[in-house]
Specification:
- The complex is a heterodimer of chains A (about 800) and B (about 220).
- Chain A has about 800 residues and is of the alpha+beta class.
- Chain A contains 23 helices and 20 strands.
- In chain A, helix 20 crosses helix 23.
- By secondary structure, chain B is α/β, with parallel strands linked by helices.
- Chain B has one domain: P-loop containing nucleotide triphosphate hydrolases (Rossmann fold, 3-Layer(aba) Sandwich), CATH 3.40.50.300.
- Chain B is about 35% helix and about 30% strand.
- Chain B contains 7 helices and 10 strands.
- The longest helix of chain B is centred in the last third of the chain and has 18 residues.
- The two termini of chain B are about 20 Å apart.
- Chains A and B meet through helix 10, helix 12, helix 20, helix 21 and helix 23 of A and helix 2 and helix 3 of B.
Chain lengths: ~800, ~220
Amino acid sequence: MQLATLAIGLISATALWSGVQALNAQARTSYDRAAAALGGNRTATLVARDGGSYAQQLYVDLRRAGWPVSPAVEGAIRLSGRSLRLLGVEPLSLPVEARTAPALGTGDLQGFILPPGQTLIAPETLREFGLTEGATPELPNGQHLPPLKPQAEIAPGVLVVDIGLAQKLLDMPDRLSRLLLGSKQDGSRPPLRDIVGDRLQLDQPDAATELERLTDSFHLNLTAFGLLSFLVGLFIVNSAIGLAFEQRRPMLRTLRACGASARQLNAVMVIELCLIALLAGLIGLVCGYLIAATLLPDVAATLRGLYGAQIPGELSLRPEWWLAGIAISILGTLAAASAALIKAARLPVLAAAQPYAWQQAQYRWLIVQGAAALAVFAAGFGFLWFGDSLLSGFAVLAAILLGAALGLPAILGLVLALGEKLARGPLTTWFWADSRLQLSGLSLALMALLLALGVNVGVGTMVESFSRTFQRWLDGRLAAEVYLNAATDQQATEIKAWLKDRPEVRSLLPGARAEVKLQGQPVELIGFADDATYRDHWPLLEHTKDVWDRVARGDAALVSEQLWRRLGVKLGDRIVVPSDRGPWPVEVVGIYADYGNPRGQLGVAFGALVTHFPDVAKTRFGLRVDPARVPALIADLRSNFALGERSLADQSTLKAISKQIFSRTFAVTTALNAFTLGIAGVALLTSLLTLGASRLPQVAPLWAIGITRRRLALVELTKTLAMAAITALVALPLGLLVAWCLIAVVNVKAFGWRLPFEVFPFELAKLVGIALLATLLAAALPILKLMRMQPARLVKVFADER
Amino acid sequence: MLIVSNLTKSYSSGQDRVAVLRGVDLAVQPGESVALTGESGSGKSTLLHLIAGLDQPDGGAITFGEETISTMPDAERAAFRRERLGLVFQQFNLIPSLTVADNLVFQARLAGRHDAAWRTELIERLGLGALLKRYPEQLSGGQQQRVAIGRALAIKPLLLLADEPTGNLDEATADDVLALATDLVRRTGCGFLMVTHSERLAGMLDRRVHLHAGLIH
C-alpha cells in the first residue's frame, strides 16, 4: 500500500510537472524558430519610424557606407482563403546570427536565388494546406509562388523566398520592411543618422521574442498549474512516507535498540527513496509525455487562437527534459520525506507515542503558521498595491493561495475547538476532540484540497464569467447575419452588384482592415460603415455622447480595450496613425471590448480608412438579412461565386466556431484543473490511510467500551467529511478571491482586457458537492477497512505495546 | 451471574491452528472477586476478551444472567459492553483526546447511566480531583490506571473485567489500586474477574482459578 501510494504520488507529481514543461518547451522552441525565420528578433533591425515600408535606396546607401545590413521584406498573403506570412530575404548578405532560419546551404543557394527560385515552407504547413513539394500555388492576385521546398527549420505559417520575388509577390517594388543589422563591428563607418536621418530607427535584438512576450502569461499560467499539481503530488508522497514511517516505527526502534545508528538508518532510507523516486520518475516522465501529447493540440489551438503562434502538432523532447524530470522527482521525494527523516533521526528509542504533546506542539506550530499566513497576505497586498506587471499579478495570486493554505489549519483548529466547547454528548465531545487530534495528520492533505478547490472555483468562475461575457460580446460583434470575404476587389464589386437584386438583403456593411505600428507594436485598423447595426450592437465600454457621429466624420476612432490600456489614452485624447497618406490624427471617442485578440485595434470610419490606405483590400463585408432567408442566400452566393467555407459564413456558424475556439482555449485549463482536484483526492486518501494505520489505538478503546465498528466508521466518515466541508467552505471565498485576482489583475496584465466579475452560486454548490464526493471516495476505503476489521485486530491493541 | 461453559478458542498460526482454550468452565457470582492466573500464553487474556464479547469463541457458551453473550450479534455485544461491563486493560487504553474528567464519565454518559454523585465519590476515592483537566499522557501509570478503573466503575457495572490492571505498576501502587477496586466492587455488588500473574495479588481476592494448557484447574 505504501509503495503504491508513494508511486502514485511521485508519478502524478512528475507527470504533470514534466508534461507542462514539455508543452512549454515545445512552444518556446517554436517561438525560437519563428523568431529566427522572421529574422527580426535575433538581430538588430532598422525599421521605419512610422512602422511602414521604406525605399530600397536606403539599403544601398548604408551598404556603401560600410554598414553590414541585409534587406528583408515581409507581408501577408492569402492561400486557400487563409493568411500566411511571406518573408523575402537576401541570402548572400544575411547576418550570421539570422542565417539559421532559411538554412540556406551553399548547395541550395543557387536554387533559391536563380529563377524560378524556391519557396521554403515548414513541412507541417505544407501538409496543412494539402500541398506537395515542387507545387507552385496561385495567389489571389494571379501570381504564382515559386516551387515549394519543405524545410524543417522554417516556422509554421511562414513562407521564405528571395527578396526580389517577395517584392513582386507583395507588390512592393523597391520597398523594404526592415534591414537586418549584423553584429560585425567596424569603427570606421559613419553614424547611422548621417545616412538615414530620422527616417529609420534601430531596434535592438530582444532576449525574448514578441511571441514569447505575448505568450508569457499563458506559459506562466501553465507553469503555475504544473507547479500546483506537483506540490499536490508531493503531498501524497509526504503522506505515503508518513504512512511508511508510522508502520516502520517499531522496527526502527528495534534496530536502534540493537545498535544501528540513526544516521545509518536514514542513509538506507534515503537510498531506498532515491531508487523508488528514480523508477517512479521514469514512469512519471512517460505519463508526462502522454499528457503533453494529449494536451498539445489544445495548447496549440489556444496559442494559435489567442496569439497567432504556430506550434507543430508533434512533440519533440530533449535529453534535458528527461534529466530535469528525474532530478525533480528525486528532489521532490527528498523534500517530501524530510519531515519523516528528521523524525526518524530524532526517534527516541524508548519513548511511547504522545498524541496530546504532539497536538500541543502542533498547536504552537499552528500559531506560527497562522502568523506566516498573515505575513504572506500582507506581502500579497503589497504586490497588489505597488506591483504593475504580470509577474506581480501572479505573485498576488500565489500569496492568496499560499496564505490561505497556511491559514487553513488555524481556521480548522478554531472551528474544531469551538465545536468541542459547544459539544454536549460524550460522543460529540470525542468527535470534536479527536478531530483536533487528527488535524495535524490531515492538514497537509486538506491544504492540498483547499488549493485544488480554490483554484477550481477561481478558474471556473473566471471561465464562466468569460463564457457569458464572451457570449454577449459575440452577439454585439457579430450582429450581421452573413459575413463575406471575397478573393479579390473585383469579385467583391461583382458580389455587391449581384446583391442589389436580392430583396432579402436589408443592408450591406463594407469593411476593411489595415495594419500599422503604434509605439513599435502592430495595431489593426478596422473600418466601420455608418450603420445602425454598429450603433445598436457594438460592445462599447466607454464612449463620448456623439460617438458614432464622430467616427462617421472620419477624425475619430474607437480604441480596443487592450490598446487603450497599453497606450494609456483616455476619451478625448488624440492618436496619430501612420497612414499611407501621412500622419492621420484621430480623437479617441470610445473604448470597446475585443476579447481574445492579442493585438490592439482601432475602429475608424470605413470611408476614412480607404482614403488613408487606398491600397487596402475592400473585400470584406457583412450583410443584414432576414434570418429565415440566410441559408438560401448563402447557397446562391456559393453557387454563383465559388465562395468557400472560409470566405462565406453565416452568423450562427461564426458564433459556433468562436465558441469552439473559446472552449478549446480553456480545455487545457479545465483538464489541469481536473487533474489537480484528482490528485488532491488521492492526497486525502493516502493521508486517511496513514491516519487509519496509526489511529487504531485511539479507536479501539471506544470499540471496547461498546461502540460498534459500524458506528465508529460512520463517526470517522462524518469527521472527515466535516473537515472537508469546512475546507470547501473556506475554498469558496478563496476561489472567488482567486477569480477576482485572475480577472482584475492577471488578465488585465496578460491580455489587456478586464471581464465583469460574476458569481455563479450553482457552480459553487456543485464544486462543494464534488469536493465532498471526492472526500467520500477517498474516505471510503479506510472506513470500509474499519467497518470490516476483524475483532482480533482490534483486540491486539489491548495486548500490543503502543 | 457469569457462567462460562466448555469454551473453546483456537487461532491460526501459519497453516496450523493453535488451540488456546480447550473447554473452559468458570462461574463468577455477583459481588465475588476472582483472580485468573496462569502462565504466559495460557489463554487468560483470550478468555477475558471472549467474556467481554470482544471476540467470539469457536465453541461453548458464555452466559450472563439470562443472556448468552457468545451468540450475540456484534451490535448487541457492543451494547452489553457499554451498559453492563467495566473493562480495565493493562495498557489502560484511555481515550487520548479527552481529559481525565471526560474519560471518567465517557462510558457512563454513553450508556445513559451517568450519576453525578457517584462520579464525585469516585473522583474522591480515586484521588483524581487535581487531575481532572489533564490528558492521559500527562499522568503516571498509576494515575492512568486509577482513571481506567474509575471509568469502568462509573457505569456501576454488573461485571468488572480487568486484564493485568497492575502489570505496569510498582507493588505499593498496585496494592493501592487493587484495594480500591475490590472495595468499590464490594460496594456496588458487581462480579470481578481479574487476570494476574501475581500470586500475592491473586491472594487478595475472594477466589483464584488457574488456567493451564487451555483448561481451568
